[in-house]
Amino acid sequence: MAQHGITPMPHAHSTAGPVIGRHPGGGRPLVLVADDEPDIRRFLRMQMEDVDVIEASDGAEALELTRLRHPQLVLLDHMMPEMDGVEVCQKIRENHSTRGIAVIILTARADEQTKLAALQAGANDFLTKPFSSAELALRLENQIGMARIRRELTDLNAELQAALERIKENEVLMLRNEKLSALGRMSAGIIHEINNPLNYAGAGIHALATFTKALPAAEQPDFEDVLKDIREGIERVSQIVIDLRKFTREDQALSGDADLVEIVTRARRMISHQVGKEIAFNLDTPTIALIRGNPNQLVQVFINLFHNSIDAIHQRLETDGGDPGQLDVMVAPAGDGWQVTVHDNGIGIPLENLPKIFDPFFTSKDVGKGMGLGLSIIHQILQGHQARLEVDSRPGEFTRFQIIFPNTLHDDDPDPHSALDQPA
Predict the structure, then answer these.
(1) Distance CA 32, CA 317 (A)
(2) Of 131, 158, 185, which residue sits at a domain end?
(3) Which of 45, 212, 291, 414 has its CA 20 to 30 A from that of 110?
């Protein structure tokens, strides 16, 4: 049972209650008054203006209302049925969603042990009965003001966290741009150095071909096969040089046409040296799949995806062997757009890592084997293309990335799916 004696001091018989500071944004602060005596609750309500008051008649009800309504301040009587004020205060502090709420405990006991118990339970303040209306007003004003400051600090912290995320994203972009710039400078020199030998080799092959008829008839087929292999090798290197030149071109525009089939095929060529004999790379595409986008950026997307799949397959093969490696890539219609599916039978992604794989600098690889930027860059590029990326994985079995590109072609452009009727 609550202890009586909450009466105003003689100098505090004003008819108007204390004015409490307003909630940020113009709203009225919400105050919970918990006491098992209706007269005391009525008296406390009369002392408070410019606040919304809710009431509880016992400790259990006070705790439930606190969890449901999240008031800015809870005014708890020390002695209540079901649960006393100290117990309620402890449970408020134990709950993550309510631990920041200000609590004032009212008590008729003035001994030090009671005060210490209230403070140890997490009370922000306490009032000893009897108290004056002025003292009540001042303590309420202080605690509501502190609650307002805590909310402002929470909001400021959220803004700082958002700013930090933006800084991290900018760092990723800067690193990517620096990487591309360095690759562009390096490739310019490589292209220059490679082109001349390729031209010499091409001219030499042409000259050698003229000697075919001078050989014995039995040796001519073998000679022609060797020349064909050399010619194909030269053409492959030439194509890689062309792809590298396109990849490093500084073109950030997204307004041009991009053919997903050509993009995926080019990305496959650029990582072909990593595939090896242990992995079957299967490509299933229509003749053409046009979208609006930046081909160079999208090539980077698929190079990163293919590279991750190849690494995942090698990790599984090194761990438990099992089925041969397989990387399946399919381009298919999706509504009025296109979907690209990249499916590998690699080591997979642990369930707990799936929400984090697109975070900048997150990586599960050993130190020195990756900076954790690949998937973050992919995510940013696809966001810029208004594409949706979905990931599904089962550790030890597979990982599947599905990228859905919207149809952003202009209205007067041809049907992006019309090429499906053309022969491959």
Answers:
(1) 63
(2) 158
(3) 45
